[in-house]
Specification:
alpha+beta; 12 helices; three-stranded mixed sheet; 16% strand; flat; four-stranded antiparallel sheet
């Protein structure tokens, strides 16, 4: 009787493992221009669920590790981003052709001079406003440092206040997005995702990975006491680190 229980025990353990780790496979695809049907190289394909990504080769080809129902975010400079769901049919067929549409970009007026200067030092020195003294720090892999919200004036009290205020945006964001916020550390581990965020300034990919509207990101950082200049000029990787730092601070204060 003792020996008969072993196969059932093994089956139970295997089933439990399979439920916790859904079957992972690889899908392949080719990304082309929907107008010319020419392949598009250097397209970023990010698996939002697994926070892993790849870049298409010169023939627009890619292969990526996925599970059924994972969502892929596809983006490239000059093209409208695309989001597709991994289906059983895609896995059975083995490959797929995905079409990207070019963006219609209207050129706007470019202003070269930031300030209207007169050429007289005494007058011009009064026209140019003084910049805030923002604290700055650096992260591995980036040559340029940037400010940290936790050292800015009022950062501690703002984050602390959000914990005890259910109506506060930080309370709602950090409280309801715990699964998405756990991805922050994973994002830096994947080379493709990290390099993509480092090169982007539009908050689109970061918003998709965190499950928020990209317009909300600016408000989140404002409530974490990051300056308007940092929010406007930082790349997506720096923005990700800023949100991550604010979240870690929030968790510590909440435990206390």
């Amino acid at each position: 009787m003792r020996y008969l229980l072993l196969p059932f025990l093994f089956l139970f353990c295997f089933t439990a493992f399979a439920q916790e780790n859904p079957l992972t496979q690889k899908v392949t695809g080719t990304i082309v221009n929907d107008n010319t049907l020419f392949p598009i190289p250097n397209v970023n394909v990010i698996n939002i669920n697994k926070v892993k990504g790849v870049v298409t080769d010169s023939k627009g080809y890619f292969e990526l590790e996925v599970s059924v129902s994972d969502t892929l975010h596809i983006s490239s400079l000059g093209y409208q981003s695309l989001r597709v769901r991994v289906t059983n049919d895609w896995l059975k067929n083995g490959t797929a052709k995905l079409l990207l549409t070019e963006k219609a970009i209207a050129l706007e007026e470019v202003i070269v001079k930031k300030y209207s200067l007169t050429g007289y030092l005494e007058i011009d020195s009064k026209l140019i406003p003084e910049k805030d003294n923002n604290y700055r720090y650096s992260i591995s892999g980036l040559s340029q440092g940037y400010e940290t919200g936790s050292s800015s004036s009022g950062a501690f009290s703002r984050v602390l206040g959000s914990i005890f205020n259910p109506a506060d945006m930080l309370y709602n964001f950090f409280g309801n997005k715990s699964n998405e916020l756990k991805k922050l550390k994973q994002m830096k581990k994947d080379d493709t995702v990290r390099h993509l965020l480092e090169s982007k300034f539009d908050r689109e990919t970061l918003g998709v990975l965190l499950g928020v509207d990209k317009k909300e990101i600016a408000e989140i950082l404002t409530r974490c006491s990051y300056s308007e200049e940092f929010i406007r000029t930082a790349n997506d990787l720096q923005i990700m680190d800023a949100i991550s730092e604010c979240y870690e601070q929030y968790k510590v204060l909440k435990k206390r």
